[in-house]
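Exercise 7. Predict the joint structure of the components listed below.
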Amino acid sequence: MTVRVRYAPSPTGLQHIGGVRTALFNYLFARANGGRFVLRIEDTDRERYSQAALQDIYDTFAWLGVSWDEGPDCGGPYGPYFQSQRLDRYRRAADTLLQEEKAYECFCSAKRLAGLRSEGARDGVVGYDRHCRALNEQQRSSYRAQGITPVVRLKIPDQGAAAFDDMLLNTVKRKCKDLSPDPIILKSDGFPTYHLANVVDDHEMEISHVLRAQEWLSSTPLHILLYEALQYEPPRYCHLPFVTGKDGQKLSKRHGATSVIEFRKQGYLPEALINYIALLGWSYDDSREYFSLAELEKVFSAEKLNKAPAVFDYKKLEWFNGNYIRESSDERVLELIRPYLQAARFIPKDADTAEAGVVRAAIPLVKERLKTLSEAPGLLRFLFEDVTGAYNAEELVPKEMDAAGTKTILLAVRPLIAAQDDYDGEALEAEFRALADRHNTKLGNVMMPLRVAVTGSRSSPPLVGSLRLLGTERALQRVDAAIAKL
RNA sequence: GUCUCCUUCGUCUAGUGGUUAGGACACCGGGUUUUCAUCCCGGCAACAGGGGUUCGACUCCCCUAGGAGAUGCCA
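Solution:
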């Protein structure tokens, strides 16, 4: 059987970690099994539809490097891939069900339904009371004459059960009486609900496997009933566990960033996100966890999926990100951090400027210190801004020294720097060492005051390299400013 | 309330009847180092609880507890 899977997002918000993981697993499943990956836009909710959200779907996956074989942007033999352009098919399916009396029209007002819900909440009874199921043709005409457009509800049998075989959960069986009574499948605006639309489309698009989040598990029996009523063959289902925050609840804003675009803005690399997300509910073996997308496409297997929910660990993502930054070429890191430095107004928008040259030279100094790209401006600030106001005199003074001693050291360091022009790293360091010896102190007690003076912070990129990037003139100014503070 | 799913270190997980229960992140300690970071070494730390089945259970079954999800003219 040809594997055909789909990712079916609804363009109502930004692509978030959970959705992207579902998409990734579908994509990997298709790739690993020589199948096709389809993007289908489920834009049946006109209230929440957003053009920006649609664009975000395209942007997110382009950035991640995940592409589909068929979709609204690239076409394919099973189009259209916007559900809003497939309304006739849903209508036809609903009409068939109506004709065969497997569904019925319902004229209940939103108000009546809301009343039902609040009564239900009080009495512990939930769901529609099937009021319109008993309507006769005369009553229906009368409602229609009043200008009420009906919705279509599926008749859930009160006997029997719906069962399916989940790839992860094995046999799942639900009694019909435990299903929500007679759910709406076609709304009064002529649009289908998710239930009808996904069944019709998965069938027509010949989707073989549906990997989706476990939040759908409880409505899958309903979908099975729909497949039976429509006399379609259902696909193979695989309900993926949730991605949660630290508190075990569905990942949401209060846990931190959730949309991919936010991670992107914060300076995460796509390969880090892909690698980390792939490991949320999936594993390869007992030791390997470092994978490129291309490698995942080869080794992904649904048998290794986990059925327990996974907590999203921001720290581990950071660790992956730091690794991928370190593994990147200096040239790439330069390109990656450029926008951040531009946003900080450290370098102009033009690509090749003197400032860009300095940044290029700084990459080796900062690369292994970056967990996210957005940390770059902080590490390099001293190269672009005067930092003499960023610290106070106490920070200049090492623990085992006093202000006077520190001043002496800085005064002694000054001519060493003044004499530099090529900044031979080893030579300068040797001179600092000699100076420390002469003053009967540790190298650190020479370096720390100088570091604070030059970079404005007790932690910085390697000092000698930083001095070289700063240049003699500015370095001396800062040493003088530090001396003045003491 | 009802229905359902889930349960191995703090976190992600390996494990499919016999293991000193392995790895990674985090954390702690040590080393390298001019700070920070990288890197290296080491440490802490788990089978939710109770019953079975079995010569033997983390692994199979049942119950309990805890967590989560669904219960929309949203997906």
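Discussion. Residues 453 and 479 of chain A are 6 Å apart (CA to CA).
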